[in-house]
C-alpha cells in the first residue's frame, strides 16, 4: 500500500515512511492510495474474535509491505497487553438501542492509547531496523500527550517533546505528562491554547532545515498510523452488534476529527455504518460547517471537555480531500484560505458529499453536565464530559438502527466536571492511584517558534 498527500504535491510513501514522517512536505496529510475493500464474508468472519485478531485483519492490508506478518502480530500483542480490560474495547448498554463503547481502559485512560501504544511499538521496530533516531514533537489538548509519553518513555531511539497549553489541561492529564522520570521525556507548557501548540508544531514541520536536523517525527492524529489503529474498533463493535447483517450507527465526540475519520474509512472499506455523527462541545466549528457550509474559526472557549477545545480541526482536511473528489489542488487552496483569512466556504458539491456521510450536533456546557447526571441516575454509568457530549448528540439521532457512542475517556481523568454533575468523585483505577503523589517535571515555554526550536535542539543533544 502506498500513501499520497491530501495536497497532491508531496512524494508518495510506503506505510513505514508515512508513519515516520507524520505531516507531508507539502503541508498535507497522508491517506492511502486505495482503500482496501472488505466483503460481507470478511466482515462476518470478525465477529467474536479477540480484539488483537480483529486488529491484525483490519490493519494488515494497509501495512503489508512494511512489516512481516509475524512482526505485525507481535507489535499488536505488545500494544494492547497493558490495557486494563480483557476485551480491550468493551461495550455497555445505555438504552433500548443505544450502546457505549468504552475506549478508556488503556494505560492513560483515554482512547488515544489504542493508537499510541501501537505507534510506540511500530516506531521501535522500524527505527531499530534502520538504526535511526527521531525527535517526536507532539501538540496536545491533554490526552495525546499523556498517551504519547506513556508509549515512548524510555525508548532509546526516540526523544519525545510534548507541547500542552499551560493551565488548560486537567490535573490528571498534566500529571500523566509531567511525572514520568525518563530522560527522553520532555513536557513543555506553552503560553497559549491548543491551536497555538498545533500551529507551532506545524511551523516546525514546515521549517525543513530544523525538521531534517533533528529528524522530526509527528505522532499527532495527522499521523496516518493513528487513524489506522482507530479503524479497528469500529469493526470490533459493529460486528459485536450484528454487522454486516445488521447496520449500525456511531456517534463520536470530536475535536481534531481523527477518531471519526477512522469511522469514515471503516465505512469506505465496506462496514455498513448508517449514520456517522459528529458530536462537538461549545467549540462547534465542525457542526457549524456541516450546517452552513462555512468553516470559519472563532477562537477557542475553554470547556469542561478540554480535549475537544479545538477550532482548527486537522483531520477535517482528509474528509475534504474525499469530498472534493481527491482533488489535492482544491484542498491546498482551501487550506491557504484558512491560514490567510481564518476560514473558507465548502463548495455545494463537497458539502453534499460530506452530508451524505456525516450528521452532526453540539452540546453546551450545561447540557454536558445534565447528561452526566441523568445517565448516572438512569443507568449507573459515569460518563466523562467528552463521552457525555457524545451521548447527548447521539440521543438526538436515535432510530431503529443500533447507535454506538464512543466513550473517549475514563471519568477519573476529569473528576471536577464529574463531581459537579453527580456529587461523586470518580476514583482512579488502582494501577495509577499514586499519580497525585509523584513529583512533576515541566518547562514553561513562550509561544515562539525560534525559542522552541532552540530548546528542542539543546535538550535532545544533552
Ligand atoms: C482526543 C480526544 C477527543 C477528540 O478526538 P479527535 O480524534 O481529536 O476528534 C475526544 N475525547 C477525548 C477524551 C480525547 O482525548
Automatic annotation (TrEMBL):
Record-linked PANTHER family: THREONINE SYNTHASE FAMILY MEMBER, THREONINE SYNTHASE-LIKE 2
Alphabetized InterPro entries for the sequence: Ser/Thr_deHydtase_PyrdxlP-BS, Thr_synth_N, Thr_synth_N_sf, Thr_synthase-like, Threonine_Synthase, TrpB-like_PALP, TrpB-like_PALP_sf
Modified positions (N6-(pyridoxal phosphate)lysine) in chain numbering: 112
Ranges where the Threonine synthase N-terminal domain occurs: 2-80
Domain Tryptophan synthase beta chain-like PALP per the UniProt entry, residue ranges: 94-328
Pathway: Amino-acid biosynthesis; L-threonine biosynthesis; L-threonine from L-aspartate: step 5/5
Necessary cofactors: pyridoxal 5'-phosphate
EC number(s) given by UniProt: 4.2.3.1
Signal sequence interval, chain numbering: none
One GO MF term attached to the UniProt entry: pyridoxal phosphate binding
Keywords on record: Amino-acid biosynthesis, Lyase, Pyridoxal phosphate, Threonine biosynthesis
Any single Pfam family the record assigns to this protein: PALP
Stretches assigned to coiled coil: none
GO annotation (BP), single: threonine biosynthetic process
Domain of life of the organism encoding this protein: Bacteria
Family recorded in the similarity comment: Belongs to the threonine synthase family.
Enzyme class of the recorded protein, top EC level: lyase
Protein name: Threonine synthase
Gene3D superfamilies per record: 3.40.50.1100, Threonine synthase, N-terminal domain
Record field: catalytic activity: O-phospho-L-homoserine + H2O = L-threonine + phosphate
Amino acid at each position: 500500500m502506498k500513501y499520497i498527500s491530501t495536497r497532491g504535491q508531496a512524494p508518495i510513501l510506503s506505510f513505514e515512511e508515512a508513519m515516520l514522517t507524520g505531516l507531508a512536505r507539502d503541508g498535507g496529510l497522508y491517506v492511502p492510495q486505495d482503500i482496501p475493500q472488505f466483503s460481507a464474508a470478511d466482515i462476518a468472519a470478525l465477529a467474536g474474535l479477540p480484539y488483537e485478531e480483529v486488529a491484525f485483519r483490519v490493519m494488515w492490508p494497509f501495512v503489508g509491505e512494511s512489516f512481516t506478518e509475524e512482526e505485525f502480530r507481535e507489535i499488536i500483542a505488545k500494544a494492547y497487553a497493558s490495557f486494563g480490560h480483557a476485551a480491550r474495547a468493551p461495550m455497555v448498554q445505555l438504552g433500548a438501542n443505544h450502546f457505549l463503547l468504552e475506549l478508556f481502559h488503556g494505560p492513560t485512560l483515554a482512547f488515544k492509547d489504542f493508537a499510541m501504544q501501537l505507534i510506540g511499538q511500530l516506531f521501535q521496530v522500524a527505527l531499530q531496523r534502520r538504526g535511526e533516531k527521531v525527535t517526536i514533537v507532539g501538540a496536545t489538548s491533554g490526552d495525546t500527550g499523556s498517551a504519547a509519553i506513556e508509549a515512548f518513555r524510555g525508548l532509546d531511539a526516540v526523544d519525545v517533546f510534548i507541547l500542552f497549553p499551560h493551565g488548560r489541561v486537567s490535573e490528571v492529564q498534566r500529571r500523566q505528562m509531567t511525572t514520568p522520570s525518563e530522560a527522553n521525556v520532555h513536557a513543555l507548557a506553552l503560553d497559549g491554547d491548543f491551536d497555538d501548540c498545533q500551529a507551532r508544531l506545524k511551523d516546525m514541520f514546515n521549517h525543513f532545515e530544523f525538521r531534517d536536523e533533528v529528524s522530526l517525527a509527528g505522532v499527532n492524529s495527522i499521523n496516518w498510523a493513528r487513524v489506522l489503529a482507530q479503524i479497528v474498533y469500529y469493526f470490533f463493535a459493529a460486528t459485536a452488534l450484528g454487522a454486516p447483517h445488521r447496520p449500525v450507527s456511531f456517534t463520536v465526540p470530536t475535536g481534531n476529527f481523527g477518531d471519526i475519520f477512522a469511522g469514515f474509512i471503516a465505512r469506505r472499506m465496506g462496514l455498513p455504518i448508517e449514520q456517522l455523527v459528529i458530536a462537538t462541545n461549545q467549540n462547534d466549528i465542525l457542526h457549524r460547517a456541516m450546517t452552513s457550509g462555512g468553516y470559519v474559526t472563532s477562537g477557542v472557549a475553554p470547556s469542561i471537555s478540554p480535549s475537544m477545545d479545538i477550532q482548527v480541526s486537522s483531520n477535517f482536511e482528509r474528509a475534504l480531500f474525499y469530498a472534493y473528489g481527491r482533488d489535492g489542488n482544491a484542498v491546498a487552496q482551501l487550506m491557504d484560505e484558512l491560514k490567510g483569512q481564518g476560514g473558507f466556504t465548502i463548495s455545494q458539491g463537497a458539502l453534499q458529499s460530506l452530508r451524505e456521510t456525516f450528521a452532526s450536533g453540539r452540546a453546551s456546557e450545561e447540557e454536558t453536565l445534565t447528561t452526566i447526571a441523568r445517565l448516572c441516575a438512569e443507568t449507573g454509568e459515569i460518563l466523562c464530559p467528552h463521552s457525555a457530549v457524545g451521548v447527548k448528540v447521539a440521543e438526538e439521532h436515535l432510530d431503529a438502527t443500533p447507535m454506538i457512542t464512543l466513550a473517549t475517556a475514563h471519568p477519573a481523568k476529569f473528576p471536577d466536571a464529574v463531581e459537579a454533575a453527580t456529587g461523586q468523585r470518580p476514583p482512579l483505577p488502582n494501577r495509577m492511584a499514586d499519580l497525585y503523589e509523584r513529583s512533576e517535571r515541566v518547562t514553561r515555554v513562550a509561544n515562539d517558534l525560534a525559542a522552541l526550536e532552540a530548546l528542542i535542539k539543546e535538550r535532545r543533544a544533552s
